[in-house]
Amino acid sequence: MKSRILTMSRERSGSRQSMAGQSLAEFLIVIPVMLLLTLGVLQFALFFMAKSTLDQAAISGAREGIVNNGSVCSIRAGVVKGLVPLYQTGNMNRDIGGYGASLVNAWTKTTLGAIGSLDSVAIDVVNPTRASFKDFATNNNVLQDGTPITAIPNARLLYRSTAAGTQSQQSIQDANILSIRVNYCDPVIVPPVRWVTGLMTGSGSDAAFGTACYAAGGIPIQSYANLLMQSPALQSAVYGSAASGCKNPFGP
């Protein structure tokens, strides 16, 4: 009887040790997967915050553009203002200098880098197009030195003809809608997710930007904004210079 009890006790002890070893093995298998999922959720939250901020930044850029003749430099300045929450330095709520430093920081990181590098911003004016200027632009206005200004009229749009232009196939009312596309390379902070993005390639109409962003370890984000022009769109302001050549309006 005693030997039987002893045998049963040993069997139970061995079974417990076996179960403990099995639990440890399962834990070692599951914990990396759970850790990766947790980090992935964290990175997705950061990505969602960046996308929401970029949406507001695109609207901010369009607002600057519609009152400044569609100037790409004004649009970029507005976009940078909208991206300040991602580049905050100091306490912007209590320190005016902190907000100024954040503006300079945002401009430096989003403008000076190569296209597609981390934090870089690429801005394209989707409308008005070059065909829009061919159809509707006039040279009625001139600068003080007598230089004619090529601009799409913005006054009395309600009473103008809605006929479509031969080049752009749009009306003058459509030509007065400023539409911009903003691409932003969001840095990936979580290392495993960054490794995964490094294996991906860009796609869509901005494949070059996306490919460069993925190669740098980031995630490309795109946003659009459309607003009605509140000033005549100048061809020289919209297409005269690249946004990358704009001077920093927030610092030296």
SSE diagram, text form:
Blueprint: H1 2-66, H2 72-83, H3 96-111, E1 121-127, H4 130-136, E2 138-142, E3 148-152, H5 172-175, E4 177-187, H6 191-197, H7 207-215, E5 218-228, E6 233-234, H8 235-239
Antiparallel strand pairs: 1-4, 2-3, 3-6, 4-5
Helix pairs in contact: 1-2, 2-3
Total number of helices: 8
**Structural domain count:** 1
Instruction: Describe the main β-sheet briefly.
Output: 3 strands, antiparallel
Order of strands, widest sheet: 1-4-5
**Percent range of helical residues:** 40-55%
Low-confidence stretches: 201-205
Annotation, overall tally of beta strands:
6
Structural category: alpha+beta
Identify the overall geometry: elongated
Order of helices and strands: HHHEHEEHEHHEEH
Beta content comes to: 15-25%
Quick take:
This protein has helices at 2-66, 72-83, 96-111, 130-136, 172-175, 191-197, 207-215, 235-239; strands at 121-127, 138-142, 148-152, 177-187, 218-228, 233-234. The chain is an alpha+beta fold and 252 residues long. The protein has one domain (46-241).
Q: Please, could you describe this protein's structure?
A:
This protein is of the alpha+beta class and 252 residues long. It has one domain. The protein has 8 helices and 6 strands. It has helices spanning 2-66, 72-83, 96-111, 130-136, 172-175, 191-197, 207-215, 235-239; strands at 121-127, 138-142, 148-152, 177-187, 218-228, 233-234. It has a 3-stranded antiparallel beta sheet. Strands 2-3-6 form a 3-stranded antiparallel beta sheet. A hairpin with a 5-residue loop joins strand 2 and strand 3. Helix 1 (2-66) runs antiparallel to helix 2 (72-83) and helix 2 (72-83) crosses helix 3 (96-111). The relative contact order is 0.16.
